[in-house]
Every structure is written in C-alpha cells, then in structure tokens.
Amino acid sequence: MIRFIFVAATVILFLILSIPLMLVEFLIGKKNRCLRDVQSLAVIQCVFRLILWMAGVKITVKGRENVPADQAVLYVGNHRSYFDILVGYVTVPSLTGFVAKKEMEKIPLLSSWMKLVNCLFLDRVNLKEGLKTILAGIEQVKRGVSVWIFPEGTRNKNDDPLDMLTFKEGSLKIAEKSGCYVVPVALTGTAEVFEQHFPKIKPSHVTITFGEPFHTKELPPEVKKFPGAYTEEQIKAMLRLQLAEGQNL
Fold it and tell me: Tens of pLDDT along 158-200?
C-alpha cells in the first residue's frame, strides 16, 4: 500500500500545485500552439517517469525504429491497465495524444492537462459525438500530432493477455481518412503493476513493442475491409513473442 499512497499523493499534489503552470501553458497556446504542445508533453513525461519509478516499473522498448520520424501516425494498442498510458507517453518519440473515454473530461484539473497534451475524449454511446472525435483526430494528425487509440474500447480484464476484446473497426477511421501510418503496439506487464492486485501497486517489468507501420489502403484485398481485425492479429503476434521471451528469461 505504501507505493499506492506515494503515487496517489504525487498525482494529487501535481494537479493542485501545477495550476499556475497550467494557466501559463494555456496562455502560451493562444500564441504558439506548437510550443505549448512540446512544453506540456515534457512536463507530463517528467511526472509519468517519476510515477513509474515510484511504482518500480522497468520498461523494455522494442521496435521504436519502426515509428516514422517525420510524420504523425495512429498508434493502435492493446489495453490492460491505466499504466499503458504512462508507458506510452514516456516511450513515444514525438507529440502524441491519447483517445480517452468521455467520462474523463469531467475530472477537474486532470482533464485540463489531458487537453494540453492533445488527448481526445470519445463518447462511446453517442455516435454523432463519436464522429466529431474522429474528425478531431484526423485534423490532429494533419497538423503533425500522433493519436493513440485502444480499439478494445475499455481495459481488458481477462487473465490471458492474448484473450483480447474484439477490436472496433471504426477505431482505425482516423488512419483511413487522414492517410497516416498505423503503428501496432503491444504491451505486457502493465496489469501486473496495479489492476491484478488493486489497490496495491507492485513492481513489474513492462515490455512495449512498436510494430511494422502500414497504410490501410495498402493492405491485401482480403483484409482491407477489416483493418481492425488485421491490426488485432498483428498485436497478438507481438504479444506471443513478448510472452515467449519473458518465459525464457
């Protein structure tokens, strides 16, 4: 419980004490959006690295060279833990915003920082509002900010990491409409930090693999109609490799 208390206290203190900094970033953003994005991401990455260190998380990153260095992409990953987001933010090579559930937009201070780091809020019930989020994601990619989405729609609580929830095909619309690369991402070890023994936080070795990027329009005809299912299989293959390598350590 000590780790949980320290992590929770760090999050609460940051949200409260960073209010002046948040206001400064909002003002900077009115004149220089790019500078605000870079500075805000740097702040969040610093805080997330501290939290991961306090939680005892060690990260192995594989395939980062697969991520195109000169353009925004759509990251598509499996989702088992809140720590997926922390690990994602400290390992991406450039500006990136996560797609979060609409309910998080109601959380004071936290939602403000999420907006500063280009997070999008998705209404999973209202299709019209969901479409607006997709359109916002397309515009975000076009201005050079990558988007990270979890097509399972929610955290997968199944014991077996390979037993993923069905990927929602609409989650890849941002890539289809913007023409950006899709980068599959596989994560193992994050649920072992927190979710598997809530409310305790325990050390864990997390592996994150960035897979081979692809354009949805260049997929073989037999899978082009279902890019979500195709991406799901790519991620499963990476997860199998991660799990096999972990067993051999």
Answer: 989 999 999 988 889 999 999 999 999 999 999 999 999 999 9
Residue 108: DSSP 8-state: T
Residue 78's identity, in one-letter code, is: N
Side by side, the strands of the sheet bearing 181-188 are 57-62, 204-210, 181-188, 73-77, 146-149, 96-101, 120-122
Maximum distance among all alpha carbons in the chain?
53
Residue ranges in 32-145 assigned as alpha helix (H)? 33-55, 83-91, 110-116, 127-142
Name residues whose C-beta falls within 8 Å of residue 110's C-beta, 6 or more positions apart in sequence. 15, 104
The dihedrals phi and psi of 100, each to the nearest 5 degrees, come to -115, 160
CA trace torsion 62, 63, 65, 66 (10° rounding): -160
What tokens does 182 get? 């899709």
